[in-house]
Write a structure and sequence with these properties.
globular, Rossmann fold
Length: 157
């Protein structure tokens, strides 16, 4: 899939992943590397019932991830990245990203961070934390650039 000189970028359509896209494009242009953009459609939630589990798939979930992937590819090409590939994955997000990295062996992965609070991270986990701990390559996490203090001040204002 990649030749080891590609930069991988994980996107989900969030503002954080758009900032990660901009940085990944800068890296690719500077390194002369290709860009492979991935997104992961997570499995739908399963609600246990008395006899049969109920799977509720949010409407248009696949289309939303396809759109985010298509937009990212278009943006990367518009920013001058010469070679751009894309890959739509399905499954548990962290596991899918890590498996892709093992198979594709890119130079590095760039991804955004949602910046969850410590409490939310405790209950929800963090995709970026999970990927960083299990990735077989360097991972660059792009944050929104504001400190935690400035977030608190802006939110309370």
């Amino acid at each position: 899939m990649t030749d080891g000189s590609a930069v991988a970028l994980a996107v989900d359509g969030s503002e954080e992943s758009k900032r990660a896209l901009d940085l990944a494009c800068q890296l690719c242009r500077g390194l002369g590397a290709s860009l492979v953009i991935i997104t992961v459609v997570p499995p739908p939630p399963i609600y246990p019932m008395e006899t049969v589990p109920l799977v509720i798939e949010p409407p248009h979930l696949l289309e939303a991830y396809q759109k985010a992937l298509g937009n990212a590819v278009g943006d990367a090409r518009a920013q001058g990245v010469a070679s751009v590939e894309s890959k739509l994955l399905e499954g548990p997000v962290v596991d899918s990203i890590v498996q892709f990295l093992k198979e594709a062996q890119p130079r590095m992965l760039v991804m955004g961070a949602r910046g969850l609070s410590a409490g939310a991270r405790l209950f929800l986990g963090s995709v970026s934390d999970g990927v960083v701990h299990h990735a077989p390559c360097p991972v660059l996490i792009v944050r929104d650039g504001r400190s935690a203090t400035s977030k608190v001040k802006e939110d309370s204002a």
